[in-house]
Amino acid sequence: SDRLLVAVSGGKDSLSLWDVLHRLGYDADGLYIGLGIDGGVGYSAESQRKAEQFAAEHELRLIVVDVAEVEGATIPEAASLTRRGRDKPCSVCGLTKRHVMNRVARDGGYDVLATGHNLDDEAAVLFGNTLSWSVGYLARQGPVLEASAQGLARKAKPFCRFYERETAAYALLRPIEYIYDECPHAVGAKSIYYKEVLNRMEAERPGLKLSFYLSFLEAKAQGVLPSQGETGAAGLHPCETCGQPTSAPGQCAFCRTWDQVRARHGLTVERASPR
Ligand code: AMP
Ligand code: FES
Ligand code: ZN
Question: Quick one: which of 29, 46, 43 has its CA closest to 105?
């Protein structure tokens, strides 16, 4: 009976997830975040079209949040104006997507925010976090991240045990029309490199990615690795501008970044509409 908000990017994973949840009878609305990325292929415009087409065909509700409309600049524009994004917009983009997803889930009274992360995504993140022994990130990684008292929505990744090729096969067989292009800024990203390395290992040892991820979950269940409750929540307080929990003093990274972007962009309006 939970009300779900599914973050849909227009790609195969999140549209397949929305399709599956709908077929299973869940009350699931979609959320598409317009990032304003063109990359010579009209990436954002095309992915929005795919998400809207799916929603219309299945008579589902899709909430669209256009970052440029709400915050005053597209993700590539914002990135070019901040130190955080000078090389690549991915950091500003990730920060913004997380903030918007959480805000819409909270304001809309949704119980769970579901994303389309698949096993390949999760194994690559786990690989990166293990290489750097980022204990805090390892503690928070898993199929479900419980809601925090400070107002962060409960998050779920129902497809985290499915290989990317399985979600692609599902989308092709249904069939679901999705955007084939990856984000043009993903080229050269560390996560793609980790995926390639894991694919090479998987080719020689089929099942390696799945066992890597499942063994990690098992180790967490046995208490060998710290879990969500053991790190993090202490030291969080509401951002003085938007109210979302943050560990930074005063403003959260999202508000600080976007205030800087608007100032440098010469935007006199504080922000285009309330957050
Ligand atoms: P990515 O970070 O691009 O690998 O995407 C991971 C998940 O985040 C996707 O499966 C979607 O659930 C969600 N997501 C990514 N981009 C968007 C977007 N523009 N709008 C809404 N959800 C998104
Ligand atoms: Fe955000 Fe590529 S920079 S999806
Ligand atoms: Zn804030």
Answer: 29
